[in-house]
Amino acid sequence: MMDKLGIPMPESGMATTVDEAVEIAGRIGYPVMVRPSYVLGGRGMEVVYDDESMADYMRAAVGVTPDRPILIDRFLMHALECEADAISDGKHAFVPAVMEHIELAGIHSGDSACIIPSKHISEKNLETIREYTRRIAEEMHVVGLMNMQYAIENDRVFVLEANPRASRTVPLVSKVCGIRMVPLATQILTSSLTGLPSPVPELKEQVIPYYGVKEAVFPFNMFQEVDPILGPEMRSTGEVLGLAETAGEAFFKAEEAASAALPTKGAVLISVNTGDKPEVAEIARSFSADGFKIYATGGTCELLRNAGIEAEYVKKAYEGRPNVRDLIVNGDVQLVINTPAGKSDPNNDSYVRRSAIKAKIAYITTMAAARAAADGIHYLKAHGDGEVRSLQEWHSLIGDGEKTE
After folding, report:
1. What is the predicted pLDDT for the residue at 75?
2. Are 206 and 116 in contact (CB under 8 A)?
3. Cα separation of 263 and 256, whole Å?
């Protein structure tokens, strides 16, 4: 269908054997996203980087048959993921807002924090997303609600999923945008009985002068030996919503609602993998400017000092004592930013994240979330708590002027 509509998707293929999977991955180019074709919630979904890992995945796959193959897609590197919920009557579709994921592509949409409406996506790409959603809904003759998943790589929009059903984000979009999506969809679905016309042609885009941030709620505090790393397989058990005039404050509120309140003073421990080092100085500088003491491990500490940021070196667990674990256990840090080193690193750093969970210290495992946290803390430090408004008061602002940032 996407070929017929001329809408791009990542290169893909389907395999039932190791040889087929390796051949497809070689043709597409690593890394690739692999997943069973018959599950929900990203179960069994994984990013694979080489032939050996692909062979291991295929050998471990359960229930693979010609009717239930493994799906293989090109993994979009450093891509911004987003999604759109739509109301469709089979002939027309309306998108209230495009939701921008804070985490990059590769994190399950249910686990990723997201900003409603989008903050960083260009108007050109927003219009492309709305247009693709309308065309796909009309081609599929969707009646009711639908959800589209997209990724933007090198300023090009790709379709990841087309789901002709309601999504868990429908209540969030409804609350942020002041639109009653479920009653509208119900009116469309029951029109043959009620005789009421479709409301879709009358729906208009509106200016929303504030932001909502959805954050996922995780059960890691109940499973303290589990590494809380996010990936394609969904791990969250709920979600919350923060509303504010700026995306930073909305993120801060959402973290607090998810029982992961961010600190406004104290110390931050930073230890990131090699691939994330180009981004770490900017984030550390923001924390330092807001009065936080910075602790950092080996290479991260050296990079920060070279960038003119004051940072105190702290050892990793295998380097001696006192070390990262001691710092966390003793309550000397209030926030941990640690991105996984990956299987190529012989010294697994999962103990850092598990230690933070046990000590009930806020922790962050992606650079995108670290940047959002720094923005939120900076806003609160500069402006204090924003005005508390009811949902109805927020909705009364819709259509009045431009956003504040």
Report:
1. 92
2. no
3. 10
Helices (H) and strands (E) in the chain, counts: 14, 17
Provide the token pair at 189.
Answer: 């679905």
Neighbours of 75 (CB within 10 A): 22
Q: How many CB atoms lie within 10 A of CB 258?
A: 20
Q: Give dist(CA 274, CA 341) in Å, integer.
A: 7
Res 8 pLDDT > 80: yes
How many C-beta atoms surround the C-beta of residue 29 within 10 A?
10
Quote the radius of gyration of the chain (alpha carbons, Å): 23
Distances (CA, A) of 359 to 296, 333, 334: 18, 10, 10
| Of 178, 94, 130, 251, the residue nearest 399 (C-alpha) | 178
Cα–Cα distance, 104 to 222 (Å, whole number): 26
Could you give the CA distance from residue 237 to residue 228 in angstroms, rounded to a whole number?
13
Could you tell me the two tokens for 234? 């969904």
pLDDT tens digits, one per residue of 331-344? 999 999 998 865 55
Q: How far apart are CA 59 and CA 15, in angstroms?
A: 12
DSSP annotation of 201 reads G
In this structure, are residues 105 and 151 in contact, taking their beta carbons and an 8 Å threshold?
A: yes
Query: pLDDT digit string (tens) for 211-244?
Result: 999 999 988 888 878 888 888 888 899 999 999 9
- Check: CB of residue 268 under 8 Å from CB of residue 290: no
With a cut of 60, say whether residue 266 has pLDDT above it.
yes
* Arithmetic mean of pLDDT, 143-172: 94
Distance CA 202, CA 55 (A): 53
CA distances (Å), 344 to each of 10, 271, 273, 274, 340, in order? 26, 16, 11, 11, 10
CB distance 142 to 90 below 8 Å? yes
Phi–psi pair at 78, nearest 5 degrees: 50, 40
Q: How many CB atoms lie within 10 A of CB 70?
A: 22
